[in-house]
Design brief:
The chain is an all-alpha fold and 127 residues long. It is 33% helix and 0% strand. It has a single domain, classed as Cytochrome c-like domain (Cytochrome Bc1 Complex, Chain D, domain 2, Orthogonal Bundle), CATH 1.10.760.
Length: 127
């Protein structure tokens, strides 16, 4: 007679913090990030005060979410209290809808962590 295995569930890990912490493992390259960002230009302007389907990303690093004047944000984004730090952007760009449920952003994300680090490095140059 076989005995049923008895095990306790694995401890839960905060996946958001674990993914965010990984940014420090990559050295972002702004020039490569500019190339990766080309796919984002369909919806996002890099010019100040120019919103397209998405808000302008000029000065996005360290900006509070939902604060670009004239852009209609989702209620989830406006109420998120997120500040777009480099690590937060790195995490968000992996899967925006998972990281900020209710966002209007329909982009599927960037799986490659090096490419995400490169985009963050590029966005950091836009001030």
């Amino acid at each position: 007679m076989a005995l049923a295995a008895c095990s306790s569930p694995a401890p839960q890990v905060d996946d958001k913090l674990a993914r965010a912490a990984k940014l420090s493992a990559y050295k972002g390259d702004a020039a490569r990030g500019q190339t990766v960002f080309a796919a984002c230009r369909t919806c996002h302007s890099l010019a100040p005060d120019v919103n397209l389907a998405g808000p302008s990303l000029f000065g996005v690093v360290d900006r509070p979410a939902g604060t670009v004047p004239g852009y209609h944000y989702s209620p989830a984004n406006r109420a998120s209290h997120v500040v777009w730090s480099e690590q937060r952007l790195f995490t968000y760009l992996r899967n925006p809808r998972e990281e900020l449920p209710g966002t209007f952003m329909s982009f599927g994300g960037i799986n490659d962590p090096q490419a995400r680090a490169d985009v963050v490095a590029y966005l950091k140059t836009l001030k």
